[in-house]
């Protein structure tokens, strides 16, 4: 029995010694290992933010803790961010941020530039992601049922009222889904109808390509740097419904 136990211990030790070598030599193993760590940490952030937010649920201010935790978490992955035009987000009035969506790693960019009193717009399915989904709910996230147009329109109307009454900012990925291929997908109209209903401007934000350090197709996830550009807009200009098609096609080209 003791001899068998010795062999088991040596096998475990051998595996532990081998894993760092495989990690350094095999990009696919590194890719999955880093994403497993990433999602574990995101869930842990969700748990901490969830318990913190129970004291005052559905408040945008609860996102400050997530902001602090995620910005420190990013250092573990060797990723750095250069922000250009950050001053364009330092505005006391409400506005809507529209941003391109490449990967779940966009979470790092979001938290790096997250302004005061801002809430995310997210698909309803994210609500069911355990502690992370509950944390999203408790920081005031607006969930959209994309399969039910009536509920989606109702959510946009309620959010418009919240924006007008409480000067809340909203962060939206208008492409509606992740796009790993570089070029932007067509924008959905929800963000622009929200802008018109609430009579607030849109601030386009562009996250540069991750191709130097990340590729889903090639199973690459290394260290590196990317740029987040916050575009300048005229906060005094108020959109109308005739502007929606133009806003939808030009917001990604503002910077």
From TrEMBL:
Q: Which organism is it from?
A: Mytilus galloprovincialis (Mediterranean mussel)
Q: Name one Pfam family in it.
A: Acyltransferase
Question: What InterPro entries does the record tag this protein with?
Answer: AGP_acyltrans, Plipid/glycerol_acylTrfase
Organism domain of life: Eukaryota
Record carries keyword Cytoplasm:
no
> Where would one find the signal peptide in this protein?
none
Q: What is its EC number?
A: 2.3.1.51
Q: What is this protein called?
A: 1-acyl-sn-glycerol-3-phosphate acyltransferase
Q: Which residues cross the membrane?
A: 7-23, 35-55, 126-144
- Record keyword Transmembrane helix present: yes
Which BP terms in the Gene Ontology apply to this protein? phosphatidic acid biosynthetic process
Q: Report the enzyme's class at the first EC level.
A: transferase
